[in-house]
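Section 5: illustrative case.
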């Protein structure tokens, strides 16, 4: 899938290191949960170079709204309508960091090993579906679920993720509350 928003993705360069700031969203569930971009989500989107959405936008209008902030890459979720044109999986090189995306990573048990087999070249796998934020590492792989900013289910807060990639490595990953 091409980045939405008309502008090609360009990372900012600081000194010798390439720096890429990424917002990570999943499970926005429009229009039932996401009527428009929540103000606390928008605050974070203003400072990013790229947005990743791990599925269940439900309507393509969410991707168009996000593209007003930065280029967007998305994968299709199980609740996405026919108007959401996105692949089931996606692999990207973000400033030298190999990132894979999928909506549903399957059961928690064996997840790291299963995602390592599915995406053998990835440094980071971004996923959604459960609405449960997760940042876990093992076997040379980091897996990251930003949770949901609008449908927190049994979680204390609605959340999203923020990544900072420097010099081809994940320098920082944070799950931030937005409700």
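Designed sequence:
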């Amino acid at each position: 899938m091409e980045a939405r928003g008309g502008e090609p993705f360009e990372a900012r360069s600081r000194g010798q290191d390439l720096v890429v700031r990424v917002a990570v969203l999943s499970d926005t569930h429009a229009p039932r949960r996401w009527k428009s971009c929540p103000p606390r989500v928008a605050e974070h989107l203003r400072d990013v170079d790229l947005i990743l959405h791990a599925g269940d936008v439900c309507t393509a209008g969410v991707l168009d709204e996000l593209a007003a902030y930065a280029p967007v890459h998305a994968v299709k979720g199980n609740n996405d309508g026919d108007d959401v044109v996105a692949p089931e999986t996606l692999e990207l090189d973000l400033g030298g960091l190999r990132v894979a995306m999928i909506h549903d990573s399957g059961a928690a048990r064996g997840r790291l090993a299963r995602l390592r087999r599915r995406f053998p070249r990835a440094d980071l796998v971004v996923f959604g579906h459960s609405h449960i934020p997760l940042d876990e590492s093992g076997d040379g792989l980091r897996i990251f679920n930003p949770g949901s900013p609008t449908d927190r289910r049994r979680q204390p807060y609605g959340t999203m993720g923020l990544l900072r990639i420097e010099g081809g490595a994940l320098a920082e990953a944070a799950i931030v509350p937005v409700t």
